[in-house]
Write the structure tokens for this entry.
Amino acid sequence: MELLISLIAGAVGGNMAGGLFKNINLGVLANSIAGIVGGGLGGQALSLLDGAAITKAAGSTDSGVLIGQAASGAVGGAIVLVVVALISRALAR
């Protein structure tokens, strides 16, 4: 459940970052793909950093865990979008 939340939040975060910063906008599909990858990575990073709390709450619907997964997914999605946009811009030169 937490992974799904991270992936969805990553797609949202990637598209929000692309919408807010027009110079890194790669289009809805590319923003979503980069966001999903970043959301998965962000969710896994949160699990590694706070493994005991996540493991303890796994199987429950603790709202704090779900909010944390959504936030880390959205931030991870935005970060990966920025990195992908910078790399694609550097390769285009």
